[in-house]
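Issue: copy button drops trailing tokens. Both records pasted manually instead:
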Amino acid sequence: MVGACRMGRGAVLTLLLCLFCLLPSTRPQTKIPLETVKSWADAFGGELYSIVTKYSGSLLLQKKYKDVEPTLKIKEVDGLELVKKFSEQMESMLRRKVEAVERLVEAAEDADLNHEYNSSLEFDYYNSLLINEKDENDNYVELGDEFILEPNEHFNNLLVNTTYSDIQLPTNVYNKDPDILNGVYMSEALNPIFVDNFERDPTLTWQYFGSSTGFFRLYPGIKWLPDENGVISFDCRNRGWYIQAATSPKDIVIIVDVSGSMKGLRMTIAKHTIVTILDTLGENDFVNIIAYNDYVHFIEPCFKGILVQADRDNREHFKQLVDELQAKGVGTVNKALTESFKILREFRDAGQGGLCNQAIMLITDGAVEDYEAVFEKYNWPDRKVRVFTYLIGREVTFAPNVKWIACNNKGYYTQISTLADVQENVMEYLHVLSRPMVINHDHDIIWTEAYMDSALPQSEELFASQAQSLLLMTTVAMPVFSKKNETRSHGILLGVVGSDVPLRELLKLAPRYKLGVHGYAFLNTNNGYILSHPDLRPLYKEGKKLKPKPNYNSVDLSEVEWEDQDEILRTAMINGETGYLSMDVKVPVDKGKRVLFLTNDYFFTDISGTPFSLGVVLSRGHGEYILLGNTSVEEGLHDLLQPDLSLANEWIYCITDIDPDHRKLSQLQAVIRFLTGEEPDLECDEELVQEVLFDAVVTAPMEAYWTTLALNMSLETEAGVEMAFLGTRAGLMRSALYVGSEKLSNRKFLTRKDKESIFTMDHFPLWYRRAAEHPPGSFIYSIVSEDDAEGGGLPKVVTVSTAVAVSVDGKMGIAAAVGVQIKLELLQRKFWAAMQQPNDTDCSALDGACPLSCQDEVLNCFLIDNNGFILISKRPAETGKFLGAVDGSVMTQLLNMGMFKKVTMYDYQAMCKIPYHHHSGARPLLSPIYAFLAAVKWLISDFLIFLLEFNMSSFWHADNLADAKAVFHHSHKHKKHDTLQPCDTEYPVFVYEPAIKETNGLIECGDCQKMFVAQQIASSNLLLLVTDAACDCSIFPPVLLDAKEVKYNASVKCDRMRSQKLRRRPDTCHAFHPEENAQDCGGAAELCASLTLLLLPLALLLR
């Protein structure tokens, strides 16, 4: 046996040789000499610096500013003084809007007092849908007389009539109804007040009166267009400004019956009723929804036992849950009522919620229990909670019971038989809640949260043309009451008067030039929601269309200024404090692909007389200095007239939008006319105009310099330099073309089509902002990423810029930025020429491959920027891509070595794709016969439901026909397979650490080692990266920039949804009044036997 273990020496050697062959072989790596890479980087960097300094004229501009340093003053900005001054100016402006609204309220109430109701009144008025419409005989249709419309810049170039208002009515409101005719006739008295208000304050925009009967008087008059279904769905009584002005804050619990008897049409009407109630709530209100049958359940289990703020987020969430409700079981309302009263009492006792009106909305098709004991225990005798009841369906058996509940709890009862009835019946509760305020004649002034009005024509064009954060507006509104003594106890609300205030107009009072390169102003509400902020993005793209996000006006301050993790800033601003706070912040730029690290100083105060607070942000360092230069008007005016000069047209050098004669002037034209005395009436910002004059003089030599260069350009060596440009802190820009305009690679640059490249109300140009955060004299090279390249192709141009700094008494300020735009092709030509050693190179002293060239197959050479984006690669398709996506191994190593660092950023305004799941099962696949029967059942039942929804008794009104058509179309819209909905995301940004000038290393890639060398290119934000191309390192995953949705587990998600952030309640509350007529609590609905009623059982059976 021992002998069997022995092996011959030859066999052992053979075995060892075989085992050695099985081991992985390690390929010797390509050795890249460090000295060679450094010499390449130096040579390329030197040539690049020579080109960009020559063609930008940066050294000349720096010298010109250096020459005037002795005459310059640098003043430190007092942030607190600045924010107080802006706040006072905003308060003054908003006060003028309030005065305009007060004049309208007084005129409307006086007109009503002097008007006697006439049920047979005949009266023609300008109907905004019918104006200028003619019949087949070329005669104007009834209510559609000639109404002159002209485009007006002050109203976004819409066609308007500034002499008269006109009347808009929703499709479901009959335009000859006696109540409508009397209201329209009475409100004609507002026309002269509208015109007078506009003459007194030409900054006023839309003024209007929304009537409680449903008509909307709008000034200036416009032509109103129906939607694609021929329907006008806009109802002023649904708008936030109307509801907030008509009622005080509300805590509401909606109770809905989901027992078996509610199946079919009744459930559809009940759901529509809930959604309509939700639409009447705003961010000062609190709500919850309870569904009941055999047991009671909160439709959002996470909200069990509490009320949540009725902001847009929560309302939309409730609507989705309501849509999923199903009817089954037996209804017992007592438990649901008990639960509701408990929640309302607990919130009231804890000082939570609205602390004003409290109400329960009961939606049911009948109530048979003995519920009196519940009211005795929880609501009588004080009746602190009003109960509103909605009887669903045509059945009248339970009507007395359901009405009794409302009438004995200071509420209101209505019966809803069709979908068309929902709107009017839900509105009744608002009239009841408004009674105490009306009886007391308390004219509370309300200001709404930010919103964008997509009801007006051309809204889509506006979405595309303006900065997103400046599209929004707020409304100031006041209720209009009947002053007639005989109806005092009924508390009759006639309507609401309002006027829009575009937030753009408010922010004009915080001039951009006073806030520095990175500074900005922002506004937020008493609830902590953003009113205006440059980082607010209210729109998203669905296909090619821009649409408002579902939660666009409930973005919290803490979701935009997310570095304020302890919410110190948010708390102080909500409390209306005046103060100061400093924070280190990471500011995303270039659509989140890059980041600036700043220390920001936040200065804040409240705006008196409003629920708003104002914040002003100045970045520490150069951001807190203002440069003051001095020059004569004559000298400055001469240089302002040079053809290469322009001014930021969104900045306010002179006020041009008030006087119609000035509206056609550009800001530059206005400044010139102001300085020459041609327009003595022009009101201009003299400090800013003085800065412009100074910059015009200092930068004037650039025009002659650029022109000389253009005339003497060498097309062979420097073909590809396309444009030179500069911008100063006063919004002045100069530019010169080195090629014909038709040959420009990027024609959008420095135009309104490329907002990031120009001075706007929101920001300085991106090339200016990035240059300001790099050492003066160091150039920033920027290439558009592959996603943003024009026409979807590869990037073609590189934008290069550098900051020009001035120093006075140890303070450094950024006076300007200057740069060139060059073709990528020129950069590539210079790059590949520099990245090779001549064949006669002395290689004796070099360790590694020699002579070496980036064109060699064994090498990959990249030119990357300080955020890791590729400007040059052997493979053109990689241009504009992130290095980590192309070579994960090298990017991972650069991160490990500290040459790049990963910065995690958050986006709390993101939109994520939610896959659409079909609810239908597989039954239709069982047999063709089933599929056919299902189709027949759908056809018959839906047709019958359509007849019922439509309410045939009013068929002869064509308006109602259109309304029914809209309902039918709406209910049959096909859902898309993927929908977008608001979410939170986190995403990485990678940033180069400039202290590390060079690095190299070996990457273990399994069977080979990959060498790489990275070398900084002097006076730039660029790096030369040379890697071994032969070693396959695909075992390393790519490093990607993809944003990931932040997924919260059920517990965390629920905690976030339940959390009640700090808010400041409105100052006034009108819950009850002793003179209120509580017996005015609704009545029986009209009953009429009809074909539709007879068809109801069949329809429900088929359902």
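Record 2 (pasted manually too):
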Amino acid sequence: MADTAPLNGPELDPWQDTRPFSSDVLTNGCNPSADDYNTNDVPLSLNGIHHSTNGNTKAELRHMNSSSDNKNALDTGYVDSENAAREPESGVEESESGEEDDDEEGEEDDEEVEGEDEEGEDDYEDEEEDEPTLKYERMSGAINDLLKKDSASALAVSNNLLALGTHNGIVHIVDLTGKRIKSYKPHQASVSDAEFDSTADFVATASIDGQVVIQSLSTHESYMFDMKRPIRTIALEPNFGKKSTRSFVCGGMAGTLVLREKGWLGHKETVLHSGEGPVWHVRWRERLIAWANDLGVKIYDTQSQMRITFIERPADSPRADLFKCTLHWQDDTTLLIGWADYIKIACIRERPHTATASGSSNQPPFIVEITAAFQLDCMVSGIVSNSPSMPRSKDGSSAQDKTPQSFLILAYQAPDTYGDEMTEDRARQARKTAERPELRIISHTGEELSADALGVTNYQAWSCNDYVMVEVDGSSSPGKSGRCHVVISPKDIVIVRPRDRKDHILWLVDHQLYDEALEEVGKLDDNECSADGDQSEISPIAIGERYIRHLVAEGNFAKAASLCPTVCSTDVERWENWIFVFAQSQQLQAIIPHVPTEAPQLGHLVYEMILAHFLVHDRQSLMRTINEWPKSIYDVSAVIVAVQAELDRSPSSSSSRSLPAPDTVILMECLAELYTANRQYGKALPFFLRLRRQNVFELIREHNLFTDVKDQVLLLIEFDQELLEKRKQEGTEAEASSSEAIALLVDHIHSIPIVRVVQQLRDRPFYLFLYLDALFKKDSQLGFEFADLQVTLFAEFATHRLIDYLRASTSYNLETAYNECKNRDLVTEMVFLLGRMGNNKKALTLIIERLGDVHMAIEFAKEQSDDDLWEDLLKYSETRPTFIRGLLENVGAEIDPIRLIRRIKNGLEIPGLKEALIKILHDFHLQISLLEGCQTILNGDSSDLAKTRSKGQNSGFFMKSRSICVLCTQPLQRLPQDLLLLFLCHHVVHASCIDGMTDIYSHEEPSEGMSMLASGVSAKIAFASVVRARIHQGCPVCYRRSEGNLM
């Protein structure tokens, strides 16, 4: 019997170790390069290399007959695995790299592997990759620092607690986050095996120093047994912490399987089996104990104390000490066996009852059926079920129904078969470099479903027995949920979890399948979405941004821009960032149609940048955008400056009738719209005129732009004349004298000075004539200083109206006007001017000799009222019957008929006389009066309001007995003799409350007797005048309120 003693192992802090160690984990999917061994804290991926097997790799399988003997022969072939594309899974960070003091020999190995990596990558690039099934995460926390100084050798798990045994004989208790809970040193050599009880209170460890230690984590209870020989494995009875027997089973190099139980007299030792070589592994489930030795696997029933089966180890198996056996109870009746390159599934069921009872008492109560057995192309370092465990059938269903759907195995590619150990060739004796371990999912038929290569530190140096994999329920781990697995190597702890929908989305994103990723995100339930929020990597916004970046990198800017409204939504900063990205890529036009102008409204610089882009590249879009966008979202003044600068660089458009270039027209349209939006109507006016906008006159009148028109007179009249010509072409009657522009100029001479108009129209005489003519028609004295110029203009453009002007105006110079008419041979006008100048005889001579118009001569004589002129006319008419007839037709007060008849020579024949129709009206009174309707209405309203106010102020005022003085807040009728002052605003105050009214009482109020009516009224008026003179600011209440001194 081994020695036993209580053990109170001290808790240890991290210790020093001089062995070199590199804790980097290589990026999965490639062989190591020289950079893979760099330990300068480079974050790398733990994700495994994923093999796209797609169900094409399958092991030959032969099901074993359940009624066969315990010895089973298995004939299987090796797995022919395919090399598939290996891509690292993103999103998982590795722990920090280790120290940089690796030896030179390790660096040389790294360089050799680097060459293999470069060749292997080329083979994988063109192959399609399937989505992995698992995800990997390096355990973080203090455990990484511990493994830099020691190496892991054993692992046990229970209730999310890990018991990690090391080669230094130390046990660390950590949780799944890597937080160290407790450390103690129970052994002096490597810990070969460890196990938790179901309560996670007791930890049992076995060591090659021959010691077995069971330690309670919550109490001081502990047990230590010296077995004298190295112990390889240990297993605690189910519910160890709840039973008083404290039973466990262990085995090792001594070749015996020992069961120890605690009794009244101490621990009792029972040898369950011996004599078949070392015991490599043992596991206890309910009443069944399974162990493995050199010959195979045996299962023992503790209740019947009988061995119920023996599963033989294949004859051609490699050495048992180099490739360990792994036993895993999937449930109470299913045992998974992985040994070297073989996997067997054993299902235990109750032995059926037979009619013959002979010998039944010597038979075990259970029988074992091998439901599946197959050989792999790798060594098995660990095996667990990849499907939920299934309870034992109670209705007699076949064991085949309980076969797990798939297995998760930790595969080790053996670099050497160790079949020629006796060779003297040193090259063959040298230790071969190991491959990366792999996690494979194998179906129950042997089909490889997926394979991921794990990147672990210094994997080239590790053997099959250096890796351990255990299953853990991670439902209570912080931030995690569901079942997971833990894989350890001497320097690494990797947590393996099944991939969920979020991982699937991340995989789609990493492989640039963004459309599918966004579709999957839409399928997430509300709890999943709310748990992650907008900042999550799988939120539609995050995925959409990655999608946009991908599309931008590929040059698909149109599709990238179409995603922006969904991705950016109402996030102003995100919108602006993406717009600037498009701008930097010279693809701003792609995103412009999607840029929001409200909900959200972006910064004004963004909109101004877009307008600047249109200004340079697409001016039609610039004009359309300015018309459509709200003017409040950008700085209108800044845009005006930019457009104006561009217009200044364009070919100048003169004020002639020819239209400017199309681009110039667009720029002017933009400026007109911008100035109007900025309420700078005066600056917009020149562009409206040059663009021939028909609403110019309405714009001028609506916004009172008459002052701005004074410098745009020529443009205004030109535009108006074009409208008149257009109406004539359309068949609408129009006269130049009906020009709307001329009428506007004439009606607003106070805002548009006459001198400014004349200066601008000097080079366009016809327009000047129209203006001065309209001005004269309104008021003959308005343009008196330009009368001589107007004579010339009438003589050129309206000769038939010149005589009317000469008669109506007195402002022109007679001599200048006569010379102008003389130069143009305007006889009628010359006659009139000579008459004005007093040279009546010369005027009459012109009428008689040049015109021969008797009626005109008579009228001229009448106008002059000169007897000598009449004498000359009569003298001239003596020999001209026509003149005599005309004179006779005009006999009146001016001509004495007798005088005329006496001068007629005898025998002169005068044609028939007729009654003359004299009186021809020549003058037309110009009636241009603009009825100011609005002014008339305003005057009427003002009058009505004034009457209303006067009536209100002069009406009576009802004062209540409790009314108070606003100034002193005392009752108005506090004393009968108090003088009260009533103002038109209906405020009543004490006279004594007003400054300067203290001596007002010295003036006696006049009597109101009927006999003194006249004097009393006069006295009241006088008294009121005195009071009014004392009140300088009007109503004191209103005044103080206006000053803010009275509420």
